[in-house]
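Reader question, answered in our methods column.
A reader sent in the components of a multi-part assembly and asked whether the whole thing could be modeled at once rather than chain by chain. We filled in our standard form and ran it. Here is what they sent:
COMPLEX SIZE: two components
ENTRIES:
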Amino acid sequence: MKLAIDAMGGDFAPQNIVAGAVAALHDNSRITKLYLVGDQPRVEAELRKFGASNNRIDLVHASEVIEMDDSPVQAVRRKKDSSMCRAIDLVKSGEADAIVSAGNTGALLTAAHLKLRTLEGVDRPGLAVIIPAPKNIFVLLDAGANLEPHASNLVQYAIMGSLYSKQILGYKQPRVALLSTGTEDMKGNELTLEAHRLLKQTDVNFVGNIDGHDLFSNRADVIVTDAFVGNAVLKACESTARLVGYWLKQELKKNPLRMLGAVLAAGAFKALKRKADPDEYGGAVLLGINGICVKAHGASSPNAAKNAIRVAAEFIECQFNEHLVEETRKFHDKVQQNTFAQPPIEAAS
Amino acid sequence: MKLAIDAMGGDFAPQNIVAGAVAALHDNSRITKLYLVGDQPRVEAELRKFGASNNRIDLVHASEVIEMDDSPVQAVRRKKDSSMCRAIDLVKSGEADAIVSAGNTGALLTAAHLKLRTLEGVDRPGLAVIIPAPKNIFVLLDAGANLEPHASNLVQYAIMGSLYSKQILGYKQPRVALLSTGTEDMKGNELTLEAHRLLKQTDVNFVGNIDGHDLFSNRADVIVTDAFVGNAVLKACESTARLVGYWLKQELKKNPLRMLGAVLAAGAFKALKRKADPDEYGGAVLLGINGICVKAHGASSPNAAKNAIRVAAEFIECQFNEHLVEETRKFHDKVQQNTFAQPPIEAAS
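And here is the structure of the entire assembly that came back:
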């Protein structure tokens, strides 16, 4: 399989991305080609640090870089020779199966959607992240792709997220829940009430509504929500974890006894940090488009870049998109057979 | 001042509520009357535990209780003689200035809104919570009152939240931010884009958008959002804090060295727990209605009930609603003078 890597995307590019790419090639012999797309002299300089060139690596020069603070739509329109756009072009032309980038999220979502288009039967792509909990790992989507979804989009996210949980995380019958303001069926806003009604009629293993208190309580393996809420919740979780860590550190520094205790228990703090380390989880995946698109986080370490490439390879290997097209077709067949009632609010659109 | 207490609301009622009420009376001599509303024999039995009866306490019998899992609208309609409804009736009739309840949140919001109505100039009430951060305490609203707000409602929340921060928390010029998917002006969904445009034209100290990563970074003293997002974010923060605590405990138990460290540093863990203890913060306040309405959390301890009563007393004492009416009038005057452009999407409603 062949992957296109946006070597210039992210706060520590190209060095961390190139380092991660070299490590990924070392770990996975089934990757036959990695296109490193970016400023050729700089990428070459990074590669030189790792010794002899690798014939599984192809350098593809791109003269521009989409910066983190560029406006997504404008950047995609204007910076046609950016590393990100060129890398996506390789997927579009069929030369690569996946694109991995740690660059500007909005630009990546926009460019991947515009250039690769959605899969047959999929109306809108959804950005999926995986989140570790004590007793399971769950998929949360949409974490940022579609800010004004219809209820029917949320139903498609349920199908995509369910397939992610099955194919990549190995859950046999992933439990799909809808994020709402409470667990009762009648809780929520217009969007979730309608999505709830539709989800009950699908073949996904829909377990009903959950609320923010239930995120980590092993009630769902897939949590479906709109991008605004998904984005806010994901970031709120991250900042709360950081806050607790910060406060704990402050308290532990307050007297020598506590400091000694902290030294003795250092292993526990390190283990906790590792558990919550986003670098281990391989980034967010844009589901529902023609091609695999993985977004590593902006501050990606070499390890984060490597894991994002690993995740992209897993998606290619399990033929995720072929399965998704099939699942989506089954879903639409069910709609056609009128066993699935069309949502009234969607009729006009 | 006079307060009506729903003595039967909450998981540990009436015992914890009555205990909190007695403690509040002890702490605050300016409370001239506490109406304890509920099942008279049970409330009396609790009061007896604290010795002689207090002439500042009036028992008001109510034969019904709205349960935590009752449907809010139905409960309010049917259980007219519930402790919650009777307590609100005391505010409506002017016998009490405030209602405090640890009962069913949805029922309390519904009953308070229906019975007390909104203040002059306020379209929809908003539920405000305060959240501690390392360098400030911020007000988040709406945390659950209005699931389908217009942008103009969010503007009113900004005014209310700002006043909360000023009058109760003592901030001179509270910074008001809009929760969105990023800090840039053009980030967000239709609702926040429109709210952003309107907020820039108000007199509140609007500092722009923030996202979930900025909650605790001292960028805002008031964070405005819609109830769905506010509810999800608040609960996500709470469950993440619990998750980190759980994981840390698990790791600390893994070997004797870590356990020893944990014992030595126990003071730090306790301090951390206290910092995040919702019992200290006195519950959520429903802003914008004729009367003060404080919602203590369902599992309220006596201390939580006491603090909820303290908060209600603070709102009465600073004449919060009088100030809010004035601020709202100023805002509407500005609208009238056409310095504030009416939102086009609201024109039809």
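What stands out: The two ends of chain A are 39 Å apart (CA to CA). Residues 344-349 of chain A have pLDDT under 50 and may be disordered.
Send us your own complexes using the same form.
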